[in-house]
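Quick one: structure for this chain?
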Amino acid sequence: MKTRIGKIARLPRAVRQELNRRLHEGERGDRLTEWLNAQPEVQAVLAAEFDGRAINAQNLSDWKRGGYRDWIAQQEALELAERLGEDTAELTAENRPPLSDTLALWLAARYAVATRRVAEAEGVEGWKLLHELCGDLVELRRGDHSAQRLRMERERFDFEREREREKTEEEFWAWAREHRDEICKGYLSPEERMMRVRKIMFGDPPGKEPCPAQPAENGCSGCAPPRVPASSTESDQAQSR
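Got it. Here's what it folds into:
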C-alpha cells in the first residue's frame, strides 16, 4: 500500500479513523475541515511539519481519493474476515469445503478490491501495480488449477476404492458358497440350541434317559423304569393264596 505524505496522512491514527468514519457517514466537507483544525493534536502536527498551515478543502479531497479509499478496502477485507470467523463451525462441519478453499475465495475477493487502485493509478505507477497484480493473479489461477486436479484425483481414488470394495465382497461370497459345508459344520438350529440349554439347566426329562446299551440315535427312547421288589408281606399273601 502506498505511503501517504499529505497533511491528513501525518495525523494520528485515531484522528484519521474518526475522519474516515465521518466521511463514510456522509458528513459535509466544510464541517470536517473545521472539526480537524480545531483538534489540539492536529494543530500540533500542522505546526511541527507544515508551518501551521490549516487543512483545507483540497487536502480533504486528496485524502478522499487516497487514504480514505484505502480505509474502505481495509474495512471490506476485515468484514470478510469477520464473516469467515463467524462461519467457522459451519466450515468445519461434514460435507463442507476445506478451509483452504474458503480462504482462497477470500483472497480472490481481496484482489478484486485491490483492482480499484490499479484502475485509479496512472503512468509508471499504474503499470507497476498492474504488473504486480498480473503476477499475483497467475499464482492465484495456478492454485485454482492445482485444487481442481486434487479434486479430480480424490474422486478417482474414491471410485477405485469403491470398485475394489465391491470386488472383494464378490470374491468373499463366492468363497463362502464354495465352502458352505465347512462353514456350516456344527451349526445348531434354534430348536437344538434350546434343547441343550434346557438339558444344562434341568437335566434330562424323567423316563427319557438314554439307554446305555443302545445309543439314542438308533431310535431308543430310553429304558423302562426298573421294577420295585415286592415287600415280604406282599410275598406271604401271595403264597397263602
